[in-house]
Amino acid sequence: MNTKQYIIVRKDLKMKHGKMAAQVSHASLGAFLNFFTMDRKRDQGADLFSLNLSFLQNSPMDMWLHGIFTKVILKVDSELELLQLNERLREKGIKTALITDRGLTTFDKPTTTCLGAGPVSSEDIEGIIGHLKLY
Q1: Which residues are bridge partners to 117 per DSSP?
Q2: In this predicted structure, what is the pLDDT of residue 74?
Q3: Could you give the CA distance from residue 74 to residue 76 in angstroms, rounded to a whole number?
Q4: How would DSSP label each residue in 54-98?
Q5: Can you give the pLDDT at residue 122?
Q6: For residue range 69-94, what is the model confidence (pLDDT) as tens digits?
Q7: Can you name the CATH fold of 3-134?
Q8: Of 83, 110, 77, nearest to 98 (Cα)?
């Protein structure tokens, strides 16, 4: 099984390299964290949170964590295209993280910049993103 994490970036925003690197990092981590469950309990009067990750042996997550953390960065032309991809991926059951910058530095308002998906089997996602070009 060929397992990868996919990050899809809006090229119409023409982000500087540093801004794009930060947004791609947010998308990668956000998509990964969607696989966790969070538990909350009280410990000595304070809230204690723990993250739990469960996955089956030989699942896409197992292959990715015990592989080389492959990531593929792809590009789209618009926010609409990004939102449509997010919807199609979610309908197929693929975990995604849609990233919206708060608009405090580069952008003057909140701006949806990129989308993280997976880790997921390449075969499960190819029909949705196969037409996209590498960034």
Answers
A1: 6, 96
A2: 98
A3: 7
A4: ---TTSHHHHHHTTT--EEEEEES-HHHHHHHHHHHHHTT--EEE
A5: 92
A6: 999 999 999 999 999 999 999 999 99
A7: Bit1 (3.40.1490)
A8: 83
Residue 131, phi then psi, degrees to nearest 5: -85, -10
Side chain identity at residue 105, one-letter code: T
Eight-state DSSP code of residue 104: S
126 pairs with which residues across the strands?
none
Q: How many CA atoms lie within 13 A of 98 on its CB side?
A: 15
Domain ranges of the chain: 3-134
CA distance 114 to 97: 8
The per-residue pLDDT string of the chain (135 residues; one tens digit each, 9 = 90 and over) reads 789 999 999 999 999 999 999 999 999 999 999 999 989 888 888 888 899 999 999 999 999 999 889 999 999 999 999 999 999 999 999 999 999 999 989 999 999 999 999 999 999 999 999 999 999
Burial of 47 (0-12, 13-18, 19+ CB in 10 A): exposed
